[in-house]
Amino acid sequence: MSDRKLVLITGAAGSIGRVVREGLKDRYRLRLMYHRTVLPAQDDEEVVVGNLSDLEVAERAVAGVDAIIHLAGDPKVEATFQSTLENNIVATYNIYEAARRHGVGKVIFASTNHVSGYYELDGMPASVEMPIRPDGYYGASKAYGEALGRFYSDRYGLSIICLRIGSFLERPRHARNLATWLSHRDCVQLMWRGIESPVPFAIVYGISGNDRRYWDISGAQQILGYEPEDNAEAYAKEIMGNE
Amino acid sequence: MSDRKLVLITGAAGSIGRVVREGLKDRYRLRLMYHRTVLPAQDDEEVVVGNLSDLEVAERAVAGVDAIIHLAGDPKVEATFQSTLENNIVATYNIYEAARRHGVGKVIFASTNHVSGYYELDGMPASVEMPIRPDGYYGASKAYGEALGRFYSDRYGLSIICLRIGSFLERPRHARNLATWLSHRDCVQLMWRGIESPVPFAIVYGISGNDRRYWDISGAQQILGYEPEDNAEAYAKEIMGNE
CB neighbours of B109 closer than 8 A, spacing ≥ 6? Predict the structure, then answer.
């Protein structure tokens, strides 16, 4: 068991963190990082508590791990500039820089579809080749995390996978989710495929294999080998009947 | 004369600021913003002094102007993250937000070729359609300014022109500048064409009409009507003979 990779999950108490923790616990050893909410450890999990806006805290969190899943941050689409500055921009710099200093070669960065949110507001599909069009400070801060990740990959050789996560939900709730849903197990799959991928850098949309999707998932499929197991279409009749 | 637009130039004591001030003073009324170095006012110039990392200072600086040329920031390619955070990321947010609050409809944002610097390091041409590849914190911070500008344009209707400025020099110095040079008068032209342009948002490379360029200037030509007057090739024999 000890030859399994040790993976740090930041933001481990968040909605994605809780699911990824359960989904990866048999594949990796886990170090879970919390900020305010601290969940009890299971089995051989390691736990760290702290605020990633402090580089020293980030360094302690990453020391000795093989890979980082960086989920921590302000996840609100309408977050203020000031909050995204501290919780997303500074914290993400601290994670990359701590990883570089401690020789951690892999970071999965939780980006968001909101880096291209204005295409959706304009009724347009989006791909990672299209220029950034954030729909708020949140999306802009995640675009910064992608850009900075590219720099850390180019300059320092870290492998960094940016997942533009869609609507992470147990099941689709609204009509929009028929396009944007990312199921729990598909999210877990994207995480481990990202960790195991040898590519130095990628930005991919992370959604399930939804028939109605308007974001390109060919990158996730071709670069990471992602094979989505879920499709929001299974919920279409029920959701469209309710709306 | 009083029907001329009032234009705020931030970073007015910088190398670009000094040239743009001289080049635009007959076309516009100018408000010059300084931080540390303060130059004496000429004629009817207005002067403000302050640090743009303070939103209230930014609001006082922009109140009543018709357009903003935002040059202030840490211009060093190897600037630290912390310096780019305060001087580039926060200051640029403050400029956009102050412009929005005071109804200023136009911002010229001094971006940089270093948002795509790793293409150049890899020997590749670059265009604004290509994904961001910064060569440092400086380039990443300017990419953030572009992304945030797109948001302010999409959401609030400001017209924001991002100039990815090349090597701003009186004349080319080194072989690289034969591709990357932006002459003084071509820079001034880009500024006023940006101010007069009705387009809601654009990112364009700002260099002279250099025969050896590897950055696409068709955007500046087609979107802004830019007609470069200079071409670094005029200095090629001399420079190549010296190197």
Answer: B70, B92, B145, B146, B149, B160, B161, B162, B163
